[in-house]
What does this fold into?
Amino acid sequence: MDSKNITFLRNHRYHKNANAVFRMAQEDFDSVEFDSETWISRLEKFINRHLNEQVPRLKELKRYSLSDNNIKYRPAKTDEFAADNRIASDFARYITIFEQGYMLGQPVQYKNENEDIQKQIDDFNNRNNETYHNVLIKTDLSIYGRAYELETTVLDEAGSAYVKLVKLNPEQTFVVYDDTTDSNSLFGVYYYTLDYGDGVRKDFINVYTSDLVYMYVNSNQDKKGMHLVDFDDYAFDGVPVNEFANNEDRTGAFEPVLDSIDAYDLSQSELANYQQDTMDAILVIAGNPYTGTAQNDLDEEGNIVPNSRLAVSLAFKRAKVMYLDDNPNPNGAQPNAFYLVKEYDTEGAEAYKKRLVNDILRFTFTPDVTDDNFSGVQSGESMKYKLMAADNRRVMQQRLFEKGLMRRLRLAVNIWRIKGNDSVAYDQINDTNIIFTANVPKSDSEIVALASQLVGQVSDETLFEILKTVTGVDPEVELERIKEDAGETPPPRRPQMEGEENEIT
It folds into this structure.
């Protein structure tokens, strides 16, 4: 990482267009010839804008998620003997994991009254390990503020086509939208570079439109530059690159508090420096003649002369001992010995760090689970109030996530209909109900009590959905078990003799 491109607690972090949405007029796109020099030139401009204006932001956010914070690139201290610790906090990952687990710790559920559609959705999700795929998407959302997936078709062993989900790296992907109020996607771009060694590199660029994918190559060994090498069709009837947004601004979960994270890192690092410098404090002895400099300290080439006054002084400093000149006159330094230790307001520093931590968590709507208010047995109602801010944020993010999931299903249903699978109506996929369940600790006794209160007011299936977290049994399975139990006649408790009444007295 080039430290020259990194600013620490100063200036603006990113380019003014670091998070801008790329757009293109519909009429301009309709006239595109994908093998023309004009189009290739325009495509290169889009890629260069993404590389130069947006990727630096994405890379910095990724660094923070790996605890490679800007404190690591802070300018070195001018004093080579002073402690210079660079301690990076892990707030970014903490916030990311919390958001991810809070929204998707309980897998997303899909409900559609059409049995054929429900079967297709379940098969689609199982083939793609959709639960884990969603976690990857949410992780990118929390880090970058945006996430991308590609839908493509794959043939199984039986020769049937199914839709495969592929997560794309936001640092290599972008979508260009039209200039209408609907912001319809015109095409998606995924590009990457392969280094073959010996200075040979190739750039690969895939452009996904609503009906074709165009593949371009740009080799540094080829004088032609970027050029079209192939194209292929598919039947998604829409741009297969699906973009998710973390919020309307497409900002990451911890992005608004990067300055506070930097300030916390600086405070932690300076505290560590103070402790180290205190342990390695310089011993000052007043009254020794070996301090100071003389004209013969440096030779003609500017090097320090061995055993000169300056050389001796530096040697003592490396040994953490400093001598002061004992001037023979009455006003000279009086013999004394002491350590050079800086004053440090430990209590004030701790209060400052605590305030920073509170700000970081408060402005990211992340609860501090180490707080005393979270200790002990908590009721469901009290937990709701403590997580209210986080829950409000989750609901907003959930709606945007649901928008991406629905677009995923609308693209996939075209394959289910066209490729020979069971025919389903396109408009019926919009009736799919997507259910999110916040992953919060719940008391089993409270859940059972709630279910008991709802008996006779809601359906049995709804009751069993509520009780699933306690029993671990799916509602459909529980209903089947009840039907089976109802059809069985319980065996008699003892053999009955003729003439005996059935009643037990």
In short: The two ends are 88 Å apart (CA to CA). Residues 258-363 form one domain.
